[in-house]
Design a protein that fits this description.
globular; two-stranded antiparallel sheet; Alpha-Beta Plaits; 2 strands; about 50% helix; about 290 residues; mainly alpha
Length: about 290
Amino acid sequence: MQLAFTALSNGFVQGFSTGRIYQGDTKRLCLPGLNCYSCPGALGACPIGSLQNALADGRFRFPFYVVGFLLFFGAVLGRFVCGFLCPFGLVQELLHKIPFPKKIRVLPGERIFRKLKYVILALFVILLPLLVLDITGRGQPWFCKYICPSGTLFGGLPLVATNPPLRAVLGFLFRWKVAILLAVVLLSLLVYRPFCRYLCPLGAIYGLFNKKALLRYELDQDKCISCGKCEKACPMAIKVTANVNSMECIRCGACRAACPRGCIHLKGTSKCKGEERRVETERCDS
């Protein structure tokens, strides 16, 4: 599903070979995942980039469309978008599948690092574009310009590779963005989805809806035997039985697949009466 959506949302294939950004009518529409507007293949816009551009307009007009778009996808899907509809999430997934001598489940200071994305959302996506204006009275898309590794990978690198004049004017900013991308790539070999965990402001927004989104999990406490298999299986290192709809949950379904008694299910679906897996309770207890 991730591969299909990435291919669909970045379907302007000739853009990668010609270095020309798609400018069709669909570019006015936001895509649910972190999908750089400047990517040569992107058929739509990134909601984080769109939000920044709206806030950076010196005439400040409330971005009803972008905010409504985020509210809709957050209320319906929550961070399911991160797990299944984000191209940069797919990149991290594939990188983490590469064999490495030692994978790290959580970093030292994990709880503090997970809060960084909310700081980035407040500071780089909202406050700085809104308050720091240039001589023309406009702000800048600070997150896109100074941080976003997705934009560097899908937009910056392909454009530089296909446009020799751009290579002649590259400076510190481009090297800085490439350094951030390389850090995320290397960390993805060790830690599952580090950008999603620690830095992504879009994940921070969608995560706020996880507990109330239409697509959310329920845990059948009566059937749960606290075997801990769901928590061991969770790649995001969530304490599933304590917070099944954590703001960090990307709805990957690993906890559901690991539960031997079918205790975790989507809201509104059957509570698995008669659908328990054929695994003996004695084995679970052991």
